[in-house]
Write a structure and sequence with these properties.
The protein is built from ten helices and eleven strands. 31% of the residues lie in helices and 19% in strands. The relative contact order is 0.15. Strands 3-2-4-5-1-6-9-10-11 form a nine-stranded mixed sheet, sandwiched between helices. The protein has a domain of 218 residues: P-loop containing nucleotide triphosphate hydrolases (Rossmann fold), CATH 3.40.50.
Amino acid sequence: MPFNPAAYALTPDQALEKLEKRRAFEREHEHLAVPFFVKGLEDIVPKQYPGETSFILSRSHEGKSTTLKAWATVCEQEVTKKNADALTIEVSHEDTAEISTEQQLSRYDNEMQFLSSQRIYIGRSFGMSQDDIADLHLTNIARTLNYVRNEQFAEKKRFAGIFYDYIQRTPFDPERRNMTDDKQLRLQMRDNTIRLCHAATTFECPLVFASQAPLKQSYTLYSPEMPIPGSGDTDESKDIFQLPDRAYGWWCVNLKYPTPGTLVESGNWRFQSAPNLFFVRCLKFRYYQPDPKKPHYAPIGRIFPVFADEKSNFYYDPDFHKRSLIGVDNA
């Protein structure tokens, strides 16, 4: 596509026109916006609107899949209240459909409530061959999404949201399957990120994906004591951070401090470890505009402690937050 310089050089009146269009878009699509998945942070972290892409960045085994499932559940339960036919899409390269179903059943009061939910799983299932699994690259995922929207049901469906787990696990498309060196991997990660962003606009829904932070060398952790990933910890491709609209760093305290009650001290933070304690770091919000009536709204750069309940749903305890901050009056 040829470069269009006019799209990047805006006069004040052109910029104001775009701002007004954005505000009108938010008012018109408020009913389709997906709230943040942590109970208690819905009014602090802004909703995600159709066409917007965000990702959760964490190290291996620190809860990427669990957070995406929790967010998909919030999406399915909240958006379908207002749009009964909207489907929530879960795409996974990690679990099988059957295992994912077993995990999700615990989030609903009974099996019939789960069976009536508006959710579609795309990914591997029991009995699939390795060739079948390797075929689930982004081109075929796009074909499957189009099939779900246009052909699987009697009427065309709207998507409430797409949740993708996770970008580094995506198989190469056929023309890239023989690429193995680092440069080619970075190119593939860039292509995949761009295509996921396109999917959010094409299907007119929020899209959330997970990204794995490096296991050995980290670059922008919050601190050595609290290794929450930051913007520099997407080493396969910087586009993983640059292109999406929002980014969150995620840390499971139990992995670094497996003994419950271990005292953790870092900067202004002082708290005890617990198996169900996590921290979310708000790294990036595009379209964020501070609200003078809500000075803590859309907290770019802020960090929140969150807990998981027995059903792997997440909640925020502001009192714990305040107790954990030394010499800070406002959490």
